[in-house]
Write a structure and sequence with these properties.
With 211 residues, the chain is α/β, with parallel strands linked by helices. It contains 6 helices and 5 strands, in the order E-E-E-H-E-H-E-H-H-H-H. The chain has one domain (2-163): Ribonuclease H-like superfamily/Ribonuclease H (Nucleotidyltransferase, domain 5, 2-Layer Sandwich), CATH 3.30.420.10. This is Crossover junction endodeoxyribonuclease RuvC.
């Protein structure tokens, strides 16, 4: 599986591509950052982010895209830019029919380091070790993008299987109810008329009238 990880940001959007499967060795395919000038209009910056992501998609042809799920932060202006860049990444992937998966920062940290509270230095160190790199990718946005890709390779298939199992369970759980209702209705309809409550009452009244 080849996964393109996106650490969304309006000034720096981290991109990382990793090949691998769960339980096997991973290999970095590419890593980088899409940058936009801080003094440019937001629309132009989003176009640059889109163009950058599209170029990575064209070059590396991933099987899936993993994007960091955006959470509210104290700096509203920063989180708005992050959310906008995240939306662009999701759009680029969806336009190509690629599956898009969102992972929270704590999920990524836990998958890569074993702790959901790991700092950026720890994440960078583990990414370097797992991908057998000479040094941690710089800036941190690039390392985070690789961590996202690794997280999805390891956790994505299991998460998909759980969702599919839950969907199947919900689908089969509803079926017996409908079937039971149908069987109950059929059983009532199949009873002889004299065995039904209304039929017995009518028979009693008829005998009393005749008497």
């Amino acid at each position: 599986m080849r996964v393109l990880g996106v650490d969304p940001g309006l000034t720096r959007c981290g991109i990382g591509v990793v090949d691998g499967t769960a339980g096997r060795r991973l290999a970095m395919v590419g890593v980088g950052v899409v940058r936009t000038p801080a003094d440019a209009p937001v629309g132009e910056r989003l176009v640059l982010v889109e163009q950058g992501i599209e170029a990575w998609l064209d070059e590396h042809r991933p099987d899936a895209v993993a994007v960091e799920r955006v959470f509210s932060q104290h700096n509203v202006r920063t989180v708005m830019g992050t959310a906008q860049a995240s939306a662009v990444a999701i759009l680029c992937a969806a336009r190509r029919g690629l599956p898009v998966h969102l992972h929270t920062p704590s999920e990524v940290k836990a998958a890569v380091t074993g702790s959901g509270r790991a700092d950026k230095a720890q994440v960078g160190a583990m990414v370097t070790r797992l991908l057998r790199l000479d040094a941690p990718p710089k800036p941190a946005d690039a390392a985070d993008a690789l961590a996202l890709a690794i997280c999805h390779i390891w956790r994505g298939p299991a998460t998909d299987r759980l969702r599919q199992a839950a969907a199947r369970q919900n689908g089969t759980a509803a079926a017996p109810s409908a079937s039971a209702a149908s069987s109950s209705s059929s059983a009532v309809a199949a009873r002889p008329a004299a065995d039904r409550p209304a039929a017995r009452d009518t028979a009693v009244r008829t005998r009393e009238s005749a008497t």
